[in-house]
Amino acid sequence: MRISFGSAEQPLHGEDRSLASLELGLFGVFDGVGGVPGSARAAEFAAGSIAGFCRRAGPPSLQVLAEACEFANGEISRRQLGCTTATLAWVAGGALLWVSIGDSRLYLWHRGALAQVSSDQGEGNVVYNVLGMPWAEASLTVQRGALELEPGDRLALVTDGVTGDFAPDLLGLQELRPSLELEDPQLAAEALVRSGRKRDDRTALVVACT
């Protein structure tokens, strides 16, 4: 299976980062948590360290992807870099391996239907689970899963600047659907960013399978 991708961003606070590697088939979005000092650095570090970990670890697997997040979590905490969400998709052959930490989201367009794959680990604009946990008693929970992909499938990874937290900023599947109907992943990513209503950094990656 061949993949291509498009990416778009609309910075406001400068706390979002993205990861896109066709070589690895690895894609991710990261949203530094507002109100926690240095969280842009956490997002930047997470993107680089997770890509490096996966590159060194060998064949793609859910275990490797989860371990990469756990490594980044430990290093971000040790270096006191702030904290960040992380949502990642690793496309290996015809399989999608994914993990999510926080409230950035992964969506799947499959046979004309759009579904949210990840679940928010938080409520509204409050996130309970992040890389670089700022509360000592908490432990990292890595949400994960695997799916089979088909030609024509598209993945969308977005930060909550796109999807919003509360009405009237909150976007449902029907409002996101027109963007994912676009076959060109670059046009789809740009449309997702334009569709956002929340006043925040907006980042979107769209991965197309052919």
Descriptive key words:
single chain, 210 residues, alpha+beta, Phosphatase 2c, domain 1, 12 strands, 32% strand
Write a brief structural summary:
With 210 residues, this protein is of the alpha+beta class. Helices cover 29% and strands 32% of the residues. It has a single domain (7-209), classed as Phosphatase 2c, domain 1, CATH 3.60.40.
What topology emerges from the helices and strands here?
Layout: E1 3-10, E2 16-21, E3 26-31, H1 39-57, H2 62-79, E4 86-92, E5 95-101, E6 105-110, E7 113-116, E8 122-123, E9 126-127, E10 143-148, E11 154-158, H3 160-163, H4 173-180, H5 185-195, E12 202-209
Antiparallel strand pairs: 1-12, 2-3, 3-4, 4-5, 5-10, 6-7, 6-11, 8-9, 11-12
Helix pairs in contact: 1-2, 4-5
